[in-house]
Amino acid sequence: MTLTRDDIDGPTVAPGSGATSTISRGGVVAALGGAAAVALVGSSFAQAAGSSLVTGPNATTVNTVQAIGGSAASTIPLTLKAVTGQKADLTDWVDPAGAALAQVQANGIIRTRGSVDIIGQTTNNISTAQPLVVFWNNADNTGDLRKWSMGLDTSNNPPNNDFFIGRVNPDRSVNDIFFLQEYAQNRVAVGLGFVPPPPSGVAITGWDNSVDVPAVLLRIGINQTGEAIKIVDSAGNRTAWIDANSAAFFPSLTTGAISNLNPGPLSVAGLRIASPDPDNPSGLFLNASATNSGPDFQLRALESSFYGAYFMQVTNSTASRTYLSIRQDSGYVGIGNINDMLAPLDIDGSSIRIRQPFTPASPSAGGYQGQISWDPGNLYVCVAPSTWLRAPLASW
Fold first, then answer.
1. Quick one: 313 and 366 in the same domain?
2. Are strands 297-304 and 283-286 parallel, antiparallel or unpaired?
3. Is residue 244 assigned to a domain?
4. What does the pLDDT look like over 157-213, one tens digit per residue?
5. How many domains does the chain have?
């Protein structure tokens, strides 16, 4: 073994058996480990007081190059400095065949063929700092009031295992669980657990002043057969969905303004309300009052095997009382609590009322066959076009 120090103070050299190590002020050449030689050539360095460079085998490892920090805590143990116009990688990790496994390129980009494992700090097998990837907006990693991170949530003590992507406060507590933003003006933004408002689990903001750009785009796959959107209850049962053909199925639908006193319009090209249970048909529920939130009326389609017909009905909210019925086969209309109409107008009551009187100007006054009117002295019936007959009214 030959060792040349050349007036360099401080390094400690632990050479390997049968190896030759040479360290000089202008360069470092280390041949380590016999047949598997490693060369460090032409590397100038300035050594901090109290630091050391250890090369060669030791008690636990073979062919090791190790930089040991100096006495000052602020001293960087090892610095790899590129030359002007550096093009080659700053450092490469290769397998025994010389194939690249990982690199630190000249521009600082880190590339690896394997996974990147970020390990948190532990003391006595207890986690003291969760794994965290932080994107700083200052080069010196100081003075940041806003930075983006991803990793396990460090805001709890002890830290939990909740993964997050978002903005982290200076105390490393999570502000936004997930947030993507194009501009500071929130022109385009997506948030989960979004803080500040809107206070919702998922918040999506569209692009301001955009033309024909959807805020949310859901693309159906080729040969899509499953639902495009599915909503399930806590037990996993499907409660509402939009299928691959964009048909929407909801157990109930409420539309309008925030205030019941100022309802908003609903305009659709077609609306189908299905009744999955023929014995208990559902329908469209209407609230007639702003003083209560529950429905007051129900508009439903009813299939009746007993009457052999289909009906459209207006009922109370529980369908225990019918106000108006229309038969699908004959068009007969029933007023009152009936649905077996046997005449074009079938009224469940003992009288009808025509509120306003009308007196034809003459027996040949204009009129339509079947028209009926009254005045204080007569009852008038139009028996043919522009042909009126009358019957005097008398008291008893």
1. no
2. antiparallel
3. no
4. 555 566 666 665 555 555 555 666 554 444 556 666 555 555 556 667 776 777 777
5. 3
Owning domain of residue 367: 353-396
Q: What is the model's pTM?
A: 0.46
* pLDDT tens readout for residues 246-291: 888 887 766 665 555 565 666 666 777 776 666 666 778 887 776 7
Residue labelled with tokens 């006054």: 365
Residue 362 resides in a domain: yes
Task: Establish if 394 belongs to a structural domain.
Answer: yes
Q: Is residue 166 part of a domain?
A: yes
Report how far apart, in Å, the C-alpha atoms of 353 and of each of 63, 110, 256 are: 110, 89, 36
Do 147 and 198 lie in one domain? The reply is yes
Residue whose entry in the numeric block shows the structure tokens 């947030």: 179
